[in-house]
Write a sequence for this structure.
């Protein structure tokens, strides 16, 4: 710039100083040169003015194309908190159920290993669980990448590093850790060694947890309550060992939202090392297993008959003699051999009475009713392991009679609990969920009238107060429930010595909040039960203890269940026609 | 005048380029620093993850139950032993107390509905328990 101006100045001066007037072609040439210089100068000046103007403009307004790019680098967004790997899983109050930790894995480049035998021996001295023969073959192979050991402990890493073997390398990896061990094994599931979900929530929400689909990895908040889950598992495993059962299953569900607060299937496994457990342990009995539930189904049959006004509480059926139909004999486990009213049929768990009750309604309506309760199709819950119910091939009078007391139709404990929740919560069916729900009211569909639901509550309370489920009573809470004892069908035949005993209950019965379900697979009687194995003896005590434990945790106020007010509230006439001894 | 202008311009150019270089170095230093801070954050976060897992592991109900069985001679809590704060009855003032100022200072239990404290009279204060058992 300086040179430009000074030369221009010099020109002017030279023109002034010399007063010699040039003529002709010389003058023309000079004029032409001058003009060209001025034009070039003006052009350059124009360019510089534009550049300067642009600079000032950018400095002042900051608007422009280049800004967006620079903004991304400089703005606070440029320091994102890196969420390390797979997102965690929490329970409903924020306790950690699954988390990802950074670990180090050891791999080798066999082409760079000098002495395979020596290296294998040295590695084995640090990681004892590896077999030296396979190590030697690995390190002697002609590949250039072999895993030696995944997920070393920091101590092992230090020691391997200290060995100084050439050809061994570390790689940073992530490992999924389940701090609670087997407590929520079936619910949370587990991942394979490459952190891909292969069971439970880990599989169902794999994309969300890993952020695979481009989105940020998001944690999952389950509806399960760690304390309830623990109490459930503790009680189930205790009674499983008392009655030497081969398996157990339990469920605690909120009746208002159908959220699952606890879900246990025993035997279970430790998701931190799933390969050490047999596949039998990984089977989720609560959602994937379907069973003939036995007498707990009488709840639905009774509710259906009352709701469709096929029978009233005053009416009843004759249960003197077993029913003979199509070569089968339907008989009672606790035979009364007399006319029984509807409350009595339910209370004493009469198969004959219930079968007659269902027959009066008819197969078509029966099937439609059970469909409404979600018992005839696969339930929609956020787990990959969900079992579909097993329906009978035909559904005629005989099937209606057997299904009325829970034989011939296999459903999962999850389906049963959800349907019982609908029976006691005022008659609204809501899909079960394992995700924590916001406070908003969950939509559901009305399946029975509210009045029928009130009667079912009282009937369930009657069972615990006077009927087959007396052992389920918990001091301080109005527990109501229904026992269910079913013979296991093995190879198409019922086995008399293998039972599935279940107890489905709800509490507190004056305003039900939670459904509690417990089931034992093949319990054996012992001295404390006088050899009996039925549900009233084996599973009802589980529910009693469990409700005493979780009631205070869930903040359910205790009441004096023996008080006159509660007695009146829960009173239901039995309309019994039993001949009293005093009237002879 | 011409020379002055030239000198002025060159001084400005030198000053501006010095300033720009200084800025550039500062930015480079800060960038290096932010990289360090970020990697530190990452390390700390990983440590926090481990601590969280450790916390969850140590607090698992089975371990706590084991510890209570070992150190506390307690039985399973029965439901009727658990009472919510709002279920507790209001404390009745002892009828023998004539002077409210004789009652020790939290005169009411902490409730959800706080009862305003009665103002003390101006003047000399006296110890609360001092007057209490005096029978007139």
């Amino acid at each position: 710039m300086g040179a430009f101006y000074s030369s221009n100045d010099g020109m002017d001066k030279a023109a002034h100083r010399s007063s010699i007037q040039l003529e002709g072609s010389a003058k023309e040439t000079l004029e032409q040169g001058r003009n060209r210089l001025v034009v070039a100068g003006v052009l350059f000046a124009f360019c510089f003015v534009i550049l300067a103007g642009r600079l000032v403009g950018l400095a002042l307004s900051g608007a422009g194309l280049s800004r967006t790019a620079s903004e991304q680098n400089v703005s606070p967004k440029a320091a994102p908190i890196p969420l390390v790997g797979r997102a965690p899983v929490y329970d409903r109050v924020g306790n950690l159920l699954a988390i990802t930790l950074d670990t180090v894995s050891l791999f080798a480049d066999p082409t760079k290993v000098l002495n395979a035998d020596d290296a294998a021996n040295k590695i084995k001295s640090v990681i004892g669980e590896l077999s030296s023969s396979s190590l030697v073959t690995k390190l002697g192979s002609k590949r250039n990448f072999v895993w030696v050991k995944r997920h070393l402990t920091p101590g092992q890493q230090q020691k391997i590093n200290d060995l100084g073997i050439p050809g061994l390398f570390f790689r940073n990896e992530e490992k999924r850790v389940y701090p609670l061990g087997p407590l929520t094994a079936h619910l949370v599931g587990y991942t394979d060694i490459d952190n891909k979900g292969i069971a439970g929530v880990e599989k169902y929400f794999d994309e969300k947890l890993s952020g695979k689909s481009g989105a940020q990895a998001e944690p999952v908040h389950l509806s399960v309550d760690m304390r309830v889950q623990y109490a459930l598992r503790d009680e189930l495993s205790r009674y499983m060992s008392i009655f030497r059962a081969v398996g157990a299953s339990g469920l605690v569900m909120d009746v208002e939202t159908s959220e699952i607060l606890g879900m246990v299937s025993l035997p279970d496994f430790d998701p931190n090392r799933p390969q050490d457990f047999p596949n039998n342990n990984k089977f989720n009995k609560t959602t994937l297993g379907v069973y003939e539930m036995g007498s707990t189904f009488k709840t639905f049959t009774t509710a259906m008959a009352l709701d469709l006004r096929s029978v009233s509480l005053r009416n009843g059926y004759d249960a003197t003699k077993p029913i003979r139909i199509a070569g089968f004999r339907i008989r009672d486990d606790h035979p009364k051999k007399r006319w029984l009213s509807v409350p009595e049929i339910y209370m004493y768990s009469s198969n004959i009475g219930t079968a007659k009750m269902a027959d009066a309604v008819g197969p078509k309506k029966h099937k439609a009713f059970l469909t409404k309760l979600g018992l005839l199709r696969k339930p929609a819950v956020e787990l990959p392991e969900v079992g579909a119910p097993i329906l009978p091939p035909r559904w005629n009078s005989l099937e209606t009679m057997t299904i009325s007391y829970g034989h011939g139709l296999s459903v999962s404990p999850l389906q049963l609990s959800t349907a019982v929740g609908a029976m006691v919560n005022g008659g609204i069916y809501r899909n079960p969920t394992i995700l924590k729900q916001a406070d908003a009211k969950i939509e559901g569909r009305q399946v029975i009238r509210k009045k029928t639901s009130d009667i079912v509550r009282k009937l369930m309370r009657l069972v615990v107060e006077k009927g087959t489920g007396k052992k389920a009573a918990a001091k301080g809470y109005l527990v109501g429930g229904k026992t269910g004892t079913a013979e296991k069908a093995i190879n198409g035949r019922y086995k008399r010595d293998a039972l599935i005993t279940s107890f489905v209950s709800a509490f507190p019965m004056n305003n039900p909040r939670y459904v509690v379900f417990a089931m034992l697979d093949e319990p054996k009687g012992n001295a404390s039960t006088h050899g009996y194995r039925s549900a009233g003896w084996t599973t009802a005590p589980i529910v009693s203890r469990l409700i005493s434990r979780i009631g205070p945790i869930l903040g359910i106020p205790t009441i004096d269940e023996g008080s006159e007010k509660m007695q009146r509230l829960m009173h239901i006439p039995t309309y019994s026609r039993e001949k009293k001894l005093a009237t002879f | 005048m011409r020379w002055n202008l030239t000198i002025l311009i060159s001084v400005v150019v030198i000053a501006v380029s010095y300033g720009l270089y200084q800025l550039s170095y500062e930015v480079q230093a800060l960038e290096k620093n932010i990289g360090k801070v970020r990697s530190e954050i990452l390390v700390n976060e990983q440590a926090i993850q481990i601590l969280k897992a450790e916390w969850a592991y140590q607090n698992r109900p089975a371990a706590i139950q084991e510890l209570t069985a070992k150190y506390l001679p307690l039985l399973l809590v029965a439901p009727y032993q658990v009472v919510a704060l709002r279920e507790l009855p209001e404390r009745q003032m002892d009828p023998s107390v004539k002077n409210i100022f004789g009652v020790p200072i939290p005169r009411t239990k902490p409730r959800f509905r706080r009862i305003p404290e009665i103002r003390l009279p101006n003047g000399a204060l006296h110890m609360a328990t001092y007057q209490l058992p005096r029978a007139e």
